[in-house]
Amino acid sequence: MGKFPVADAEISRTKICRKCKGRNSFGAVKCRRCGYSFLRPKNKVVKRKK
Question: What is the model's pTM?
Answer without folding.
Answer: 0.75
